[in-house]
Design brief:
589 residues, six-stranded antiparallel sheet, 23 helices, elongated
Protein backbone atom coordinates (compact mmCIF):
# COMPACT_ATOMS: atom_id res chain seq x y z
CA UNK A 1 0.00 0.00 0.00
CA UNK A 2 2.83 2.41 0.88
CA UNK A 3 4.60 1.50 -2.35
CA UNK A 4 1.49 2.32 -4.35
CA UNK A 5 1.19 5.75 -2.69
CA UNK A 6 4.83 6.50 -3.49
CA UNK A 7 4.14 5.62 -7.12
CA UNK A 8 1.15 7.98 -7.19
CA UNK A 9 3.31 10.86 -5.97
CA UNK A 10 6.04 9.94 -8.44
CA UNK A 11 3.65 9.93 -11.38
CA UNK A 12 1.99 13.22 -10.31
CA UNK A 13 5.28 15.10 -10.18
CA UNK A 14 7.19 13.19 -12.85
CA UNK A 15 5.58 12.35 -16.21
CA UNK A 16 8.83 11.06 -17.70
CA UNK A 17 9.20 7.69 -19.37
CA UNK A 18 11.17 6.57 -16.29
CA UNK A 19 8.11 7.17 -14.09
CA UNK A 20 5.91 5.24 -16.53
CA UNK A 21 8.49 2.42 -16.57
CA UNK A 22 8.50 2.38 -12.73
CA UNK A 23 4.70 2.17 -12.59
CA UNK A 24 4.65 -0.57 -15.19
CA UNK A 25 7.28 -2.58 -13.33
CA UNK A 26 5.45 -2.26 -10.03
CA UNK A 27 2.14 -3.19 -11.64
CA UNK A 28 3.73 -6.23 -13.31
CA UNK A 29 5.18 -7.27 -9.94
CA UNK A 30 1.71 -7.04 -8.34
CA UNK A 31 0.28 -9.03 -11.25
CA UNK A 32 2.87 -11.78 -10.81
CA UNK A 33 2.05 -11.92 -7.10
CA UNK A 34 -1.68 -12.23 -7.89
CA UNK A 35 -0.92 -14.81 -10.58
CA UNK A 36 1.04 -16.97 -8.11
CA UNK A 37 -1.79 -16.68 -5.57
CA UNK A 38 -4.26 -17.72 -8.25
CA UNK A 39 -2.13 -20.78 -9.10
CA UNK A 40 -2.17 -21.80 -5.42
CA UNK A 41 -5.96 -21.42 -5.42
CA UNK A 42 -6.30 -23.61 -8.51
CA UNK A 43 -4.14 -26.28 -6.85
CA UNK A 44 -6.76 -26.44 -4.11
CA UNK A 45 -9.35 -27.10 -6.84
CA UNK A 46 -10.94 -23.71 -6.31
CA UNK A 47 -11.48 -21.05 -8.95
CA UNK A 48 -10.74 -17.44 -8.11
CA UNK A 49 -11.35 -14.20 -10.00
CA UNK A 50 -7.88 -12.66 -9.74
CA UNK A 51 -7.31 -13.33 -13.43
CA UNK A 52 -9.56 -10.36 -14.23
CA UNK A 53 -7.40 -8.02 -12.16
CA UNK A 54 -4.23 -9.39 -13.75
CA UNK A 55 -5.65 -8.92 -17.25
CA UNK A 56 -6.88 -5.40 -16.44
CA UNK A 57 -3.40 -4.35 -15.27
CA UNK A 58 -1.76 -5.83 -18.37
CA UNK A 59 -4.32 -4.27 -20.72
CA UNK A 60 -4.03 -0.75 -19.28
CA UNK A 61 -0.23 -0.92 -19.46
CA UNK A 62 -0.42 -2.16 -23.06
CA UNK A 63 -2.63 0.75 -24.19
CA UNK A 64 -0.67 3.34 -22.20
CA UNK A 65 -3.38 4.08 -19.61
CA UNK A 66 -0.87 4.50 -16.78
CA UNK A 67 -3.20 6.50 -14.52
CA UNK A 68 -5.75 3.70 -14.71
CA UNK A 69 -3.00 1.15 -14.04
CA UNK A 70 -1.98 3.13 -11.00
CA UNK A 71 -5.53 3.34 -9.63
CA UNK A 72 -6.04 -0.43 -10.11
CA UNK A 73 -2.80 -1.16 -8.27
CA UNK A 74 -3.75 1.21 -5.43
CA UNK A 75 -7.19 -0.40 -5.32
CA UNK A 76 -5.81 -3.94 -5.12
CA UNK A 77 -3.09 -3.18 -2.58
CA UNK A 78 -5.49 -1.05 -0.56
CA UNK A 79 -8.24 -3.66 -0.74
CA UNK A 80 -6.55 -5.77 1.91
CA UNK A 81 -6.37 -2.78 4.26
CA UNK A 82 -10.01 -1.99 3.58
CA UNK A 83 -10.99 -5.60 4.21
CA UNK A 84 -8.98 -5.75 7.45
CA UNK A 85 -10.70 -2.58 8.67
CA UNK A 86 -14.16 -3.97 7.94
CA UNK A 87 -13.30 -7.39 9.37
CA UNK A 88 -11.94 -5.88 12.59
CA UNK A 89 -15.07 -3.81 12.95
CA UNK A 90 -17.25 -6.89 12.43
CA UNK A 91 -15.12 -8.96 14.82
CA UNK A 92 -15.19 -6.45 17.66
CA UNK A 93 -17.22 -8.67 20.05
CA UNK A 94 -14.83 -11.57 19.51
CA UNK A 95 -11.82 -9.29 19.96
CA UNK A 96 -13.32 -7.70 23.05
CA UNK A 97 -13.54 -11.09 24.74
CA UNK A 98 -9.83 -11.65 24.23
CA UNK A 99 -8.90 -8.15 25.37
CA UNK A 100 -10.94 -8.44 28.57
CA UNK A 101 -9.48 -11.79 29.59
CA UNK A 102 -8.12 -11.48 33.16
CA UNK A 103 -4.57 -12.63 33.85
CA UNK A 104 -4.36 -12.02 37.60
CA UNK A 105 -6.53 -12.81 40.62
CA UNK A 106 -6.63 -11.55 44.21
CA UNK A 107 -6.54 -14.49 46.65
CA UNK A 108 -7.33 -14.17 50.35
CA UNK A 109 -4.71 -15.99 52.42
CA UNK A 110 -5.41 -15.54 56.10
CA UNK A 111 -5.92 -11.80 56.46
CA UNK A 112 -3.69 -10.91 53.53
CA UNK A 113 -4.73 -10.41 49.91
CA UNK A 114 -2.18 -11.85 47.49
CA UNK A 115 -2.09 -11.20 43.75
CA UNK A 116 -1.44 -14.37 41.74
CA UNK A 117 -1.75 -15.53 38.16
CA UNK A 118 -5.21 -16.98 37.52
CA UNK A 119 -3.60 -20.30 36.58
CA UNK A 120 -2.67 -20.67 40.26
CA UNK A 121 -6.25 -20.38 41.55
CA UNK A 122 -7.70 -23.67 42.80
CA UNK A 123 -11.23 -24.72 43.82
CA UNK A 124 -12.19 -23.49 47.34
CA UNK A 125 -9.78 -20.54 47.17
CA UNK A 126 -11.36 -17.27 48.33
CA UNK A 127 -11.08 -14.75 45.48
CA UNK A 128 -11.56 -11.01 45.96
CA UNK A 129 -13.04 -9.29 42.91
CA UNK A 130 -12.50 -5.55 43.13
CA UNK A 131 -14.95 -2.99 41.69
CA UNK A 132 -15.10 -2.99 37.86
CA UNK A 133 -12.90 -6.08 37.59
CA UNK A 134 -13.68 -9.20 35.57
CA UNK A 135 -14.43 -12.32 37.64
CA UNK A 136 -11.40 -14.57 36.93
CA UNK A 137 -12.86 -18.03 37.73
CA UNK A 138 -16.25 -19.64 38.27
CA UNK A 139 -17.33 -19.47 41.88
CA UNK A 140 -19.97 -19.16 44.58
CA UNK A 141 -20.69 -15.73 46.04
CA UNK A 142 -19.90 -15.56 49.76
CA UNK A 143 -20.54 -11.82 50.10
CA UNK A 144 -24.10 -10.92 51.12
CA UNK A 145 -24.84 -9.59 47.61
CA UNK A 146 -23.13 -8.12 44.59
CA UNK A 147 -24.05 -6.77 41.16
CA UNK A 148 -22.50 -8.20 38.00
CA UNK A 149 -22.61 -7.21 34.34
CA UNK A 150 -22.92 -10.49 32.38
CA UNK A 151 -23.44 -8.90 28.96
CA UNK A 152 -20.26 -10.44 27.52
CA UNK A 153 -21.63 -13.89 28.42
CA UNK A 154 -25.38 -13.58 27.92
CA UNK A 155 -25.85 -10.52 25.74
CA UNK A 156 -28.14 -9.00 28.41
CA UNK A 157 -27.12 -5.40 29.07
CA UNK A 158 -28.89 -5.06 32.45
CA UNK A 159 -26.64 -6.00 35.41
CA UNK A 160 -27.89 -8.82 37.65
CA UNK A 161 -27.85 -8.88 41.46
CA UNK A 162 -26.47 -12.08 43.01
CA UNK A 163 -27.16 -13.19 46.57
CA UNK A 164 -24.96 -15.21 48.92
CA UNK A 165 -24.62 -18.80 47.71
CA UNK A 166 -25.47 -18.06 44.07
CA UNK A 167 -23.17 -19.00 41.21
CA UNK A 168 -20.98 -16.33 39.65
CA UNK A 169 -19.60 -17.04 36.17
CA UNK A 170 -16.09 -16.05 35.21
CA UNK A 171 -16.12 -13.26 32.65
CA UNK A 172 -18.83 -11.29 34.48
CA UNK A 173 -17.88 -7.70 35.31
CA UNK A 174 -18.18 -6.73 38.97
CA UNK A 175 -20.10 -3.60 39.96
CA UNK A 176 -19.28 -0.83 42.39
CA UNK A 177 -18.48 -2.93 45.49
CA UNK A 178 -15.75 -5.53 46.03
CA UNK A 179 -17.11 -9.09 46.08
CA UNK A 180 -15.85 -12.31 47.61
CA UNK A 181 -16.34 -15.60 45.84
CA UNK A 182 -15.29 -19.15 46.64
CA UNK A 183 -13.75 -20.69 43.52
CA UNK A 184 -15.60 -23.77 42.28
CA UNK A 185 -13.26 -24.43 39.36
CA UNK A 186 -9.77 -23.53 38.28
CA UNK A 187 -9.25 -21.05 35.45
CA UNK A 188 -8.81 -23.72 32.78
CA UNK A 189 -12.23 -25.23 33.48
CA UNK A 190 -14.09 -21.98 34.11
CA UNK A 191 -16.73 -20.57 31.81
CA UNK A 192 -14.80 -17.55 30.52
CA UNK A 193 -11.60 -19.43 29.77
CA UNK A 194 -13.62 -21.91 27.71
CA UNK A 195 -15.09 -19.01 25.73
CA UNK A 196 -11.63 -17.52 25.24
CA UNK A 197 -10.29 -20.84 23.97
CA UNK A 198 -13.19 -21.20 21.55
CA UNK A 199 -12.62 -17.67 20.26
CA UNK A 200 -8.92 -18.42 19.75
CA UNK A 201 -9.87 -21.56 17.85
CA UNK A 202 -12.22 -19.50 15.69
CA UNK A 203 -9.47 -16.95 15.06
CA UNK A 204 -6.98 -19.68 14.16
CA UNK A 205 -9.37 -21.52 11.83
CA UNK A 206 -10.07 -19.05 9.03
CA UNK A 207 -13.11 -20.10 7.07
CA UNK A 208 -12.99 -20.71 3.33
CA UNK A 209 -15.06 -17.54 2.94
CA UNK A 210 -14.22 -17.04 -0.71
CA UNK A 211 -16.06 -20.23 -1.72
CA UNK A 212 -19.38 -18.42 -1.53
CA UNK A 213 -18.23 -15.88 -4.12
CA UNK A 214 -16.23 -18.33 -6.22
CA UNK A 215 -19.44 -20.09 -7.25
CA UNK A 216 -20.00 -17.08 -9.49
CA UNK A 217 -16.33 -16.50 -10.37
CA UNK A 218 -16.14 -18.59 -13.54
CA UNK A 219 -19.37 -17.35 -15.22
CA UNK A 220 -18.59 -13.75 -14.19
CA UNK A 221 -15.05 -14.01 -15.60
CA UNK A 222 -16.25 -15.53 -18.87
CA UNK A 223 -19.00 -12.91 -19.19
CA UNK A 224 -16.52 -10.08 -18.59
CA UNK A 225 -14.10 -11.41 -21.22
CA UNK A 226 -16.92 -11.80 -23.74
CA UNK A 227 -18.09 -8.20 -23.20
CA UNK A 228 -14.53 -6.84 -23.35
CA UNK A 229 -13.61 -8.89 -26.44
CA UNK A 230 -16.83 -7.96 -28.22
CA UNK A 231 -16.29 -4.25 -27.49
CA UNK A 232 -12.74 -4.47 -28.88
CA UNK A 233 -13.82 -6.40 -31.95
CA UNK A 234 -16.66 -4.03 -32.85
CA UNK A 235 -14.84 -0.77 -32.07
CA UNK A 236 -11.41 -1.89 -33.26
CA UNK A 237 -9.98 -0.03 -30.26
CA UNK A 238 -7.87 -2.07 -27.85
CA UNK A 239 -8.43 0.60 -25.18
CA UNK A 240 -12.10 -0.46 -25.09
CA UNK A 241 -11.00 -3.95 -23.95
CA UNK A 242 -8.99 -2.39 -21.10
CA UNK A 243 -11.83 -0.05 -20.10
CA UNK A 244 -14.28 -2.94 -19.73
CA UNK A 245 -11.90 -5.06 -17.65
CA UNK A 246 -11.06 -2.16 -15.34
CA UNK A 247 -14.68 -2.03 -14.13
CA UNK A 248 -14.79 -5.84 -13.95
CA UNK A 249 -12.46 -5.92 -10.94
CA UNK A 250 -13.17 -8.91 -8.66
CA UNK A 251 -12.88 -6.96 -5.39
CA UNK A 252 -16.65 -6.89 -4.65
CA UNK A 253 -16.81 -10.69 -4.97
CA UNK A 254 -13.70 -11.16 -2.86
CA UNK A 255 -14.80 -8.82 -0.05
CA UNK A 256 -18.55 -9.38 0.24
CA UNK A 257 -18.79 -12.90 1.66
CA UNK A 258 -15.93 -12.73 4.22
CA UNK A 259 -17.12 -9.52 5.80
CA UNK A 260 -20.76 -10.64 5.99
CA UNK A 261 -19.79 -13.97 7.55
CA UNK A 262 -17.46 -12.40 10.09
CA UNK A 263 -20.24 -9.94 10.95
CA UNK A 264 -22.64 -12.84 11.54
CA UNK A 265 -20.11 -14.63 13.76
CA UNK A 266 -19.62 -11.43 15.74
CA UNK A 267 -23.37 -10.98 16.17
CA UNK A 268 -23.69 -14.57 17.40
CA UNK A 269 -20.92 -14.08 19.98
CA UNK A 270 -22.78 -11.03 21.28
CA UNK A 271 -25.57 -13.43 22.24
CA UNK A 272 -23.31 -15.96 23.94
CA UNK A 273 -22.82 -18.22 20.90
CA UNK A 274 -19.33 -18.96 19.62
CA UNK A 275 -19.21 -20.06 15.98
CA UNK A 276 -15.86 -21.63 15.13
CA UNK A 277 -15.66 -20.45 11.52
CA UNK A 278 -17.70 -18.83 8.79
CA UNK A 279 -18.23 -22.06 6.84
CA UNK A 280 -20.43 -23.18 9.75
CA UNK A 281 -22.78 -20.27 9.08
CA UNK A 282 -23.09 -21.31 5.44
CA UNK A 283 -23.82 -24.97 6.32
CA UNK A 284 -26.26 -24.02 9.08
CA UNK A 285 -28.21 -21.91 6.60
CA UNK A 286 -28.88 -25.01 4.47
CA UNK A 287 -29.79 -27.37 7.36
CA UNK A 288 -33.20 -29.02 6.94
CA UNK A 289 -33.18 -31.45 9.92
CA UNK A 290 -32.38 -30.68 13.54
CA UNK A 291 -31.53 -33.53 15.93
CA UNK A 292 -31.44 -33.11 19.72
CA UNK A 293 -30.06 -35.08 22.61
CA UNK A 294 -32.60 -35.45 25.45
CA UNK A 295 -30.92 -35.12 28.83
CA UNK A 296 -29.47 -31.69 29.42
CA UNK A 297 -30.55 -30.44 26.00
CA UNK A 298 -34.32 -30.75 25.56
CA UNK A 299 -34.57 -31.34 29.31
CA UNK A 300 -32.80 -29.66 32.21
CA UNK A 301 -30.96 -32.87 33.08
CA UNK A 302 -31.93 -32.54 36.75
CA UNK A 303 -34.61 -35.07 37.67
CA UNK A 304 -37.16 -34.20 40.36
CA UNK A 305 -39.50 -36.33 42.45
CA UNK A 306 -42.87 -36.49 40.72
CA UNK A 307 -44.77 -39.00 42.87
CA UNK A 308 -44.40 -41.19 45.98
CA UNK A 309 -46.45 -44.40 45.99
CA UNK A 310 -46.70 -46.18 49.37
CA UNK A 311 -47.59 -49.74 50.31
CA UNK A 312 -50.02 -50.61 53.09
CA UNK A 313 -48.88 -49.91 56.66
CA UNK A 314 -46.26 -47.36 55.57
CA UNK A 315 -46.24 -43.55 55.55
CA UNK A 316 -44.96 -41.27 52.80
CA UNK A 317 -42.62 -39.22 55.01
CA UNK A 318 -41.19 -42.39 56.55
CA UNK A 319 -40.31 -43.90 53.18
CA UNK A 320 -38.75 -40.67 51.86
CA UNK A 321 -36.78 -40.09 55.09
CA UNK A 322 -35.34 -43.62 55.28
CA UNK A 323 -34.57 -43.87 51.54
CA UNK A 324 -32.93 -40.42 51.49
CA UNK A 325 -30.86 -41.29 54.57
CA UNK A 326 -29.68 -44.50 52.91
CA UNK A 327 -28.86 -42.70 49.63
CA UNK A 328 -27.27 -39.65 51.29
CA UNK A 329 -23.68 -40.63 50.42
CA UNK A 330 -24.45 -41.70 46.86
CA UNK A 331 -23.51 -39.46 43.92
CA UNK A 332 -26.16 -40.97 41.62
CA UNK A 333 -28.46 -38.35 40.06
CA UNK A 334 -31.61 -40.00 41.53
CA UNK A 335 -30.05 -40.16 44.99
CA UNK A 336 -29.04 -36.49 44.83
CA UNK A 337 -32.54 -35.48 43.75
CA UNK A 338 -34.16 -37.60 46.51
CA UNK A 339 -31.98 -36.05 49.22
CA UNK A 340 -32.83 -32.56 47.94
CA UNK A 341 -36.54 -33.47 47.95
CA UNK A 342 -36.35 -34.72 51.55
CA UNK A 343 -34.61 -31.55 52.72
CA UNK A 344 -37.09 -29.33 50.90
CA UNK A 345 -39.87 -31.10 52.84
CA UNK A 346 -38.03 -30.51 56.14
CA UNK A 347 -37.40 -34.21 56.76
CA UNK A 348 -34.43 -34.83 59.05
CA UNK A 349 -31.86 -37.14 57.51
CA UNK A 350 -30.73 -39.90 59.85
CA UNK A 351 -27.31 -41.48 60.18
CA UNK A 352 -26.97 -44.57 58.01
CA UNK A 353 -24.69 -47.48 58.94
CA UNK A 354 -23.38 -50.48 57.02
CA UNK A 355 -23.98 -48.64 53.74
CA UNK A 356 -23.16 -50.75 50.69
CA UNK A 357 -23.85 -49.38 47.22
CA UNK A 358 -24.11 -51.63 44.19
CA UNK A 359 -23.29 -49.35 41.26
CA UNK A 360 -26.16 -49.12 38.81
CA UNK A 361 -28.51 -51.18 40.99
CA UNK A 362 -29.11 -49.72 44.45
CA UNK A 363 -27.98 -49.51 48.05
CA UNK A 364 -28.16 -51.48 51.33
CA UNK A 365 -28.11 -49.55 54.62
CA UNK A 366 -29.15 -49.68 58.23
CA UNK A 367 -30.97 -46.55 59.35
CA UNK A 368 -31.71 -46.58 63.05
CA UNK A 369 -33.09 -50.03 63.76
CA UNK A 370 -34.40 -50.60 60.24
CA UNK A 371 -32.79 -52.32 57.30
CA UNK A 372 -33.31 -50.38 54.08
CA UNK A 373 -32.92 -51.56 50.49
CA UNK A 374 -33.41 -48.90 47.82
CA UNK A 375 -32.84 -49.09 44.08
CA UNK A 376 -34.17 -50.52 40.83
CA UNK A 377 -37.15 -52.91 40.80
CA UNK A 378 -34.92 -55.72 39.52
CA UNK A 379 -32.53 -55.08 42.42
CA UNK A 380 -35.26 -55.61 45.00
CA UNK A 381 -36.59 -58.69 43.19
CA UNK A 382 -33.08 -60.11 43.10
CA UNK A 383 -32.96 -59.70 46.88
CA UNK A 384 -36.25 -61.63 47.26
CA UNK A 385 -38.46 -58.59 47.84
CA UNK A 386 -41.92 -59.08 46.41
CA UNK A 387 -43.07 -55.92 44.65
CA UNK A 388 -46.42 -55.28 42.93
CA UNK A 389 -46.73 -55.02 39.18
CA UNK A 390 -45.27 -51.69 38.11
CA UNK A 391 -44.49 -49.63 35.09
CA UNK A 392 -40.85 -50.58 34.65
CA UNK A 393 -40.47 -47.89 31.98
CA UNK A 394 -40.72 -45.22 34.65
CA UNK A 395 -37.66 -43.87 36.45
CA UNK A 396 -38.01 -44.75 40.12
CA UNK A 397 -36.34 -45.81 43.35
CA UNK A 398 -38.09 -48.80 44.91
CA UNK A 399 -37.83 -49.07 48.69
CA UNK A 400 -37.95 -52.06 51.04
CA UNK A 401 -37.92 -51.72 54.83
CA UNK A 402 -37.03 -54.78 56.90
CA UNK A 403 -37.34 -56.97 53.78
CA UNK A 404 -40.88 -55.79 53.06
CA UNK A 405 -41.82 -53.65 50.05
CA UNK A 406 -42.62 -50.15 51.35
CA UNK A 407 -43.18 -48.07 48.24
CA UNK A 408 -41.71 -46.40 45.17
CA UNK A 409 -40.45 -42.89 44.56
CA UNK A 410 -40.90 -41.77 40.95
CA UNK A 411 -38.81 -39.15 39.14
CA UNK A 412 -39.23 -37.10 36.02
CA UNK A 413 -36.74 -35.17 33.90
CA UNK A 414 -38.33 -31.79 33.28
CA UNK A 415 -38.59 -30.54 29.71
CA UNK A 416 -37.15 -27.06 29.30
CA UNK A 417 -39.86 -24.45 29.25
CA UNK A 418 -38.35 -22.93 26.09
CA UNK A 419 -38.07 -26.29 24.25
CA UNK A 420 -41.41 -26.29 22.42
CA UNK A 421 -41.09 -22.62 21.42
CA UNK A 422 -37.54 -23.23 20.17
CA UNK A 423 -38.61 -26.10 17.95
CA UNK A 424 -41.52 -24.05 16.68
CA UNK A 425 -39.15 -21.19 15.83
CA UNK A 426 -36.86 -23.60 13.96
CA UNK A 427 -39.81 -24.78 11.86
CA UNK A 428 -40.55 -21.15 10.98
CA UNK A 429 -37.03 -20.83 9.52
CA UNK A 430 -37.55 -23.71 7.09
CA UNK A 431 -36.56 -26.74 9.17
CA UNK A 432 -38.50 -29.73 7.80
CA UNK A 433 -38.06 -32.22 10.64
CA UNK A 434 -36.91 -32.35 14.28
CA UNK A 435 -35.77 -35.60 15.92
CA UNK A 436 -34.59 -36.67 19.37
CA UNK A 437 -31.76 -39.15 19.97
CA UNK A 438 -31.50 -40.61 23.47
CA UNK A 439 -30.24 -43.61 25.37
CA UNK A 440 -33.31 -43.51 27.64
CA UNK A 441 -36.15 -46.02 27.50
CA UNK A 442 -38.67 -45.66 24.71
CA UNK A 443 -41.70 -44.91 26.91
CA UNK A 444 -39.89 -42.08 28.71
CA UNK A 445 -38.39 -40.79 25.45
CA UNK A 446 -41.80 -40.69 23.75
CA UNK A 447 -43.25 -38.76 26.67
CA UNK A 448 -40.43 -36.19 26.62
CA UNK A 449 -40.54 -35.96 22.83
CA UNK A 450 -44.27 -35.29 22.80
CA UNK A 451 -43.90 -32.64 25.49
CA UNK A 452 -41.06 -30.90 23.64
CA UNK A 453 -42.79 -31.15 20.27
CA UNK A 454 -40.25 -33.19 18.28
CA UNK A 455 -41.40 -34.96 15.12
CA UNK A 456 -39.56 -38.26 15.61
CA UNK A 457 -37.98 -40.10 18.57
CA UNK A 458 -35.08 -42.59 18.54
CA UNK A 459 -34.58 -44.20 21.97
CA UNK A 460 -32.43 -46.77 23.81
CA UNK A 461 -29.36 -45.73 21.81
CA UNK A 462 -25.68 -46.14 22.57
CA UNK A 463 -23.28 -43.43 21.28
CA UNK A 464 -22.43 -45.59 18.25
CA UNK A 465 -26.16 -45.98 17.49
CA UNK A 466 -26.57 -42.21 17.49
CA UNK A 467 -23.75 -41.93 14.95
CA UNK A 468 -25.38 -44.59 12.75
CA UNK A 469 -28.73 -42.76 12.79
CA UNK A 470 -27.01 -39.46 12.05
CA UNK A 471 -25.28 -41.03 9.04
CA UNK A 472 -28.64 -42.27 7.75
CA UNK A 473 -30.17 -38.81 8.20
CA UNK A 474 -27.22 -37.32 6.32
CA UNK A 475 -27.96 -39.45 3.24
CA UNK A 476 -30.98 -37.26 2.48
CA UNK A 477 -30.99 -34.17 0.30
CA UNK A 478 -30.60 -31.68 3.15
CA UNK A 479 -28.06 -31.08 5.89
CA UNK A 480 -28.48 -32.21 9.51
CA UNK A 481 -27.58 -30.28 12.68
CA UNK A 482 -27.12 -31.99 16.05
CA UNK A 483 -27.51 -30.32 19.44
CA UNK A 484 -26.05 -32.03 22.52
CA UNK A 485 -24.17 -31.42 25.74
CA UNK A 486 -22.49 -34.56 27.10
CA UNK A 487 -19.33 -36.60 26.56
CA UNK A 488 -21.43 -39.26 24.81
CA UNK A 489 -22.62 -36.58 22.35
CA UNK A 490 -19.10 -35.80 21.09
CA UNK A 491 -19.04 -38.51 18.35
CA UNK A 492 -22.45 -37.61 16.92
CA UNK A 493 -21.68 -33.88 17.06
CA UNK A 494 -18.56 -34.54 14.99
CA UNK A 495 -20.53 -36.70 12.52
CA UNK A 496 -23.30 -34.17 11.85
CA UNK A 497 -23.09 -31.45 9.20
CA UNK A 498 -23.31 -28.88 11.99
CA UNK A 499 -22.65 -29.82 15.62
CA UNK A 500 -23.97 -27.44 18.29
CA UNK A 501 -22.88 -27.96 21.91
CA UNK A 502 -24.72 -26.63 24.96
CA UNK A 503 -21.45 -25.54 26.55
CA UNK A 504 -22.75 -23.92 29.75
CA UNK A 505 -23.19 -27.29 31.43
CA UNK A 506 -21.80 -29.62 28.82
CA UNK A 507 -18.44 -31.34 28.62
CA UNK A 508 -15.24 -30.05 27.11
CA UNK A 509 -15.26 -33.02 24.72
CA UNK A 510 -18.65 -32.00 23.34
CA UNK A 511 -17.52 -28.38 22.92
CA UNK A 512 -14.35 -29.42 21.10
CA UNK A 513 -16.29 -31.69 18.72
CA UNK A 514 -18.91 -29.07 17.91
CA UNK A 515 -18.90 -26.39 15.22
CA UNK A 516 -20.72 -23.91 17.44
CA UNK A 517 -20.98 -23.66 21.22
CA UNK A 518 -23.83 -22.03 23.15
CA UNK A 519 -22.24 -20.72 26.33
CA UNK A 520 -25.58 -20.26 28.12
CA UNK A 521 -28.01 -22.78 29.57
CA UNK A 522 -30.68 -21.59 27.14
CA UNK A 523 -32.00 -23.80 24.34
CA UNK A 524 -33.68 -20.84 22.59
CA UNK A 525 -30.21 -19.72 21.43
CA UNK A 526 -30.32 -22.64 18.97
CA UNK A 527 -33.17 -21.04 16.99
CA UNK A 528 -31.49 -17.64 17.37
CA UNK A 529 -28.28 -19.04 15.84
CA UNK A 530 -30.29 -20.47 12.96
CA UNK A 531 -31.90 -17.06 12.34
CA UNK A 532 -28.52 -15.32 12.48
CA UNK A 533 -27.09 -17.77 9.95
CA UNK A 534 -30.07 -17.26 7.61
CA UNK A 535 -29.71 -13.48 7.73
CA UNK A 536 -25.92 -13.64 7.41
CA UNK A 537 -26.01 -15.72 4.24
CA UNK A 538 -28.83 -13.58 2.85
CA UNK A 539 -26.76 -10.42 3.38
CA UNK A 540 -23.63 -12.11 1.97
CA UNK A 541 -25.47 -13.15 -1.21
CA UNK A 542 -27.07 -9.72 -1.50
CA UNK A 543 -23.62 -8.17 -1.29
CA UNK A 544 -22.16 -10.55 -3.89
CA UNK A 545 -25.04 -9.99 -6.31
CA UNK A 546 -24.98 -6.23 -5.73
CA UNK A 547 -21.29 -6.20 -6.63
CA UNK A 548 -21.88 -8.35 -9.72
CA UNK A 549 -24.84 -6.27 -10.88
CA UNK A 550 -23.01 -2.96 -10.51
CA UNK A 551 -19.94 -4.38 -12.29
CA UNK A 552 -22.04 -5.71 -15.17
CA UNK A 553 -23.81 -2.37 -15.61
CA UNK A 554 -20.49 -0.53 -15.70
CA UNK A 555 -19.04 -3.11 -18.12
CA UNK A 556 -21.90 -2.59 -20.57
CA UNK A 557 -21.52 1.19 -20.37
CA UNK A 558 -17.74 0.94 -20.76
CA UNK A 559 -18.21 -1.32 -23.80
CA UNK A 560 -19.73 1.64 -25.64
CA UNK A 561 -16.79 3.86 -24.70
CA UNK A 562 -18.59 6.06 -22.18
CA UNK A 563 -16.31 5.27 -19.22
CA UNK A 564 -12.59 6.04 -19.58
CA UNK A 565 -10.28 3.57 -17.84
CA UNK A 566 -9.31 6.06 -15.12
CA UNK A 567 -12.94 6.92 -14.29
CA UNK A 568 -13.83 3.22 -14.34
CA UNK A 569 -11.11 2.44 -11.78
CA UNK A 570 -12.52 5.12 -9.47
CA UNK A 571 -16.08 3.83 -9.89
CA UNK A 572 -14.88 0.35 -9.06
CA UNK A 573 -13.56 1.61 -5.73
CA UNK A 574 -17.02 3.06 -4.96
CA UNK A 575 -18.52 -0.38 -5.66
CA UNK A 576 -16.10 -1.87 -3.11
CA UNK A 577 -17.24 0.57 -0.43
CA UNK A 578 -20.91 -0.08 -1.24
CA UNK A 579 -20.46 -3.85 -0.98
CA UNK A 580 -18.55 -3.60 2.31
CA UNK A 581 -21.16 -1.34 3.93
CA UNK A 582 -23.93 -3.71 2.83
CA UNK A 583 -22.05 -6.76 4.14
CA UNK A 584 -21.67 -5.14 7.56
CA UNK A 585 -25.47 -5.19 7.91
CA UNK A 586 -25.15 -8.85 8.94
CA UNK A 587 -23.94 -7.61 12.30
CA UNK A 588 -27.29 -6.00 13.01
CA UNK A 589 -30.61 -7.68 13.74
Amino acid sequence: MVGAIVLVLTFVFDRSSEAEWLISSYAIFISLFLFWDMIQTLREKMYGVDILAITAIGATIAVGQYWATLVIVVMLTGGETLEDFAANRARRELSALLERAPTMAHILKGREIVDVKISVVKPDDIVIVKPHEVVPVDGELISDSAEFDESSLTGESIPVVKKRGETVMSGALNGEVAARIRATADAKHSQYEQIIQLVRDAENQPAPFVRLADRYAVPFTIFSYVIAGTAWAISGDAARFAEVLVVASPCPLILAAPIALISGMSRASKHGIIVKNGAVMERLNSVTIFAFDKTGTLTHGDVVVSEVVIADNFKKDEIVQLAASAEMSSSHILATSLVAYAKSHHLKLLRAKNVREITGDGVFATVGSKKVIAGRAEFLIKNKIVIPTTDKNSTAIFVAINNQFAGAIYFIDQVRKEARATLRELKSTGIQETVMLTGDRLAIANKIGASAGVDKVFAELLPKNKVEIMQKLNTGSGRVAMVGDGVNDAPVLATSDVGIAMGARGSTAASESADAVIMLDDLSRVSLLRKISKRTIKVALQSVWTGIALCVILELIAAFGFIPALVGAGLQELIDVTVILNALRAHRG
